[in-house]
Design brief:
Chain A is of the alpha+beta class. Helices cover 55% and strands 18% of the residues of chain A. Chain A folds into two domains: 191 residues, no CATH class; 195 residues, no CATH class. In chain A, strands 2-3-8-5-7-6 form a six-stranded mixed β-barrel. In chain A, strands 11-12 form a two-stranded antiparallel sheet. In chain A, a hairpin with a 2-residue loop joins β6 and β7. The mean pLDDT of chain A is 89. In chain B, strands 6-7-8-3-9-10 form a six-stranded mixed beta sheet, with helices on both faces. In chain B, strands 2-1-4-5 form a four-stranded antiparallel beta sheet, with helices on one face. The chains are: A alpha+beta (427), B alpha/beta (226). At the A-B interface, α1, α11 and α14 of A face α2, β6 and α3 of B.
Chain lengths: 427, 226
């Protein structure tokens, strides 16, 4: 006990003297050099956080948009092999009373096709201008509350519950929007709000007037066509009135989680009726794989930065220690412990890494994250944001610090362990 | 205070062996002001470095203040240097980025004293060597004589049993050199044991005793009449 107290006291004293020496050395060092080292540390930290953050952000931006515009926090879809969600009305009634459910939108889907330009098609040897799609029937108010869908109308107007015979078309069904994807989608040419299109579902065909064009980077929106629920049932012949999708949004600020909502629905016995998934679970596995791969790629690039930073610190401390070898010898000569001298260099490394890292943190959270949120990177499949979770950033900060400490310690140790007299005499 | 028995030091490079000390026997009682003299290359500084635990002898025994130093670890040697030995080097050996006061403080801090205490002691020591007005100056802002005084203050700050001085006046003008040697004399009169390497006869006369080295051996002792 007494011995451990002595050891603790001894180490505290070593730390104190190391700190004393480090502070004076930093104060006495060349300001421009210090600035340069801190700047390199900052760039390294930014490289470590931002590269992987942007790569992950490409996927995360897509996931975020998917959650906001399509799945909500929880989504119920049809089970594999089923045509619709069983007991849809009971589910609606349950959701209406379930704590934590802010709003929900019930969607009715059928596969169909849209034909445009049939009035101007004079030559029947020319292919019809047809695009396959899913026709979605919506309760407009509910969908608007859930996904704010009207915000994404880029041409024309949003549907009106009091009107009939109008359709909203996803932008990727139109050639002028999807040309960038090549022949990936069969798309309609020259369709504008006010034009008439034929919508065929099964054996039924009806004409609709295009009310607006919806453009988002969520395929479930931009590759679908939307009509009112009333028009849907006029168009579609199918037994039963069950829905195909129910997207649920948690009350903002609620402590109830998506997992709780899902669990409550399962407990209520709806698991056999539909596939109940949280937004996270609904993300396709390949996107998660891409996310992991991008994360790894970002980390590899970040690691290169870490290696560069550690070499920088190594060289800086090595040159510092070599040029001060005589003084290190003198300090050892007058009885300053080797550990205190080594720790003074470790403190210097910590100073450079901490200051660089902190500047990096400030830049990330006060500048880059808000900037990316306000002006996301415009990618064809998502609006890329900067994903920099605090815990992940803290781990990377710790990693930079650790590597820097090692990179500072090794050269310091190499110089400090040299013969005291040789150091003093410069031999 | 110091007992040296059959001390040898041989520097070895690949194929060449250079014996520098060849069987030194020496005793320095407490309170003595010992001068080590000799021609350049005689081994006087080497002898001081061995006794002062700055280097390892090739063979022989050194006992300092009753401690046989033969089998001490590096850490133990450092601890002895910190607790009972003080050094004054020819080129002052001050740490350039530290002020005079901070230079004196470091060994005191290393001994575990608080920052406030260390600062007080350092200021007292600097006042004693006549540098009360230069405490916050860095070495580059001090003259050679002033730097050597800071060096003496640092060496004495932790009350060492033995003070080693390696040609402390060699880089100083005669006035500064004289004041430094008088400072040593003053310390010695207060009971401080001092071992000083010098090649200047005029300063050596301040020592109680002088040993003369030639070719790595003590060839003569002289005791001064005070």
């Amino acid at each position: 006990m007494k011995n451990s107290k002595f050891v603790t006291k001894k180490w505290l004293n070593i730390l104190r003297v190391g700190y004393f020496l480090a502070i004076r050395q930093i104060k006495g060092s060349n300001k421009a050099t210090t600035f340069l080292i801190v700047f390199i540390m900052m760039l390294t930290f930014l490289n470590l956080v931002v590269v992987s953050g942007v790569l992950i952000g490409l996927i995360e931006g897509g996931n975020k948009a998917n959650k906001e515009q399509y799945t909500g926090d929880v989504i119920i879809t049809t089970l594999s092999g089923e045509k619709d969600i069983g007991h849809s009305h009971e589910i609606e009634n349950t959701l209406a009373k379930m704590p934590g459910v802010g709003n929900y939108s019930v969607r009715y889907l059928e596969s169909g096709q849209i034909e445009a330009n049939y009035k101007t098609r004079r030559d029947f040897s020319v292919l019809q201008d047809i695009a396959g799609t899913q026709v979605v029937g919506l309760t407009l108010e509910d969908e608007e509350k859930l996904s704010n869908i009207s915000k994404f109308v880029v041409e024309g107007e949003f549907l009106n519950e009091n009107e009939s015979g109008y359709i909203l078309i996803g932008a990727n069904l139109l050639y002028r929007y999807s040309a960038g994807f090549g022949d990936f989608f069969a798309s309609l040419d020259g369709v504008y709000p006010g034009d008439e299109v034929k919508v065929t579902v099964g054996d039924n065909t009806k004409t609709f007037i295009v009310k607006g064009i919806l453009d988002t980077k969520v395929d479930q929106v931009s590759l679908r066509a939307f009509i009112t629920k009333a028009d849907f049932w006029r168009l579609v012949d199918r037994p039963g009135l069950n829905a195909n999708e129910v997207a649920i949004r948690i009350t903002p600020g609620s402590t109830i989680t998506a997992d709780t909502i899902k669990s409550n629905l399962v407990k209520a016995g709806f698991a056999p009726d539909g596939k109940i998934q949280t937004a996270t679970e609904a993300i396709p596995d390949f996107l998660n794989q891409i996310r992991i791969a991008f994360g790894l790629l970002g980390n590899v690039i970040g690691m290169v930065g870490i290696v560069v930073a550690s070499i920088t610190i190594f060289i800086v401390i090595f040159i510092n220690a070599v040029t001060r070898r005589k003084y290190i010898g003198i300090m050892k000569g007058i009885g300053i412990s080797e550990k205190a001298i080594e720790i003074s260099y470790i403190f210097q490394s910590i100073f450079y890494a901490t200051l660089g890292g902190l500047l990096g943190v400030l830049i990330i959270y006060l500048l880059l994250v808000p900037l990316f949120n306000a002006y996301p990177l415009d990618f064809p499949f998502s609006d890329g944001i900067l994903v920099a979770p605090v815990d992940g950033t803290a781990i990377k900060f710790g990693l930079l610090l650790f590597v820097t400490i090692i990179a500072g310690y090794i050269p310091a140790r190499n110089i400090v362990k040299k013969n005291t007299l040789d150091s003093i005499l410069g031999r | 205070m110091i007992k040296v028995k059959n001390l040898t030091k041989t520097y070895r490079t690949k194929d060449i062996e250079t014996p520098v000390l060849r069987g030194i026997d020496l005793e320095v009682p407490e309170g003595e002001f010992l001068g080590i003299m000799g021609k350049s290359g005689a081994g006087k500084s080497t002898l001081m470095y061995q006794i002062g635990l700055l280097d390892h002898p090739t063979s022989g025994e050194i006992v300092l203040n009753g401690i046989n130093t033969e089998n001490l670890t590096t850490e133990e040697r450092t601890q002895i240097r910190l607790s009972i030995l003080g050094y004054v080097f020819q080129d002052y050996a001050l740490i350039p980025e530290l002020t005079a006061s901070e230079n004196v403080m470091i060994p005191i801090l290393m001994q575990g004293k608080s920052g406030v205490e260390a600062r007080e002691i350092s200021r007292d020591m600097l006042k004693k060597v006549g540098l009360g007005h230069r405490m916050d100056n860095k070495p580059s802002q001090l003259s050679g004589g002033e730097q050597q005084r800071v060096s003496i203050a640092r060496a004495m700050a932790h009350n060492p049993k033995i003070l080693f001085a390696d040609e402390p006046t060699a880089n100083l003008d005669s006035v500064s050199g004289q004041s430094i040697i008088e400072l040593f004399k003053d310390l010695n009169e207060k009971g401080q044991t001092i071992v000083m390497v010098t090649h200047e006869e005029e300063y050596a006369r301040y020592c109680n005793r002088i040993v003369y080295l030639e070719d790595g051996k003590i060839v003569r002792h002289t005791t001064q009449k005070q």
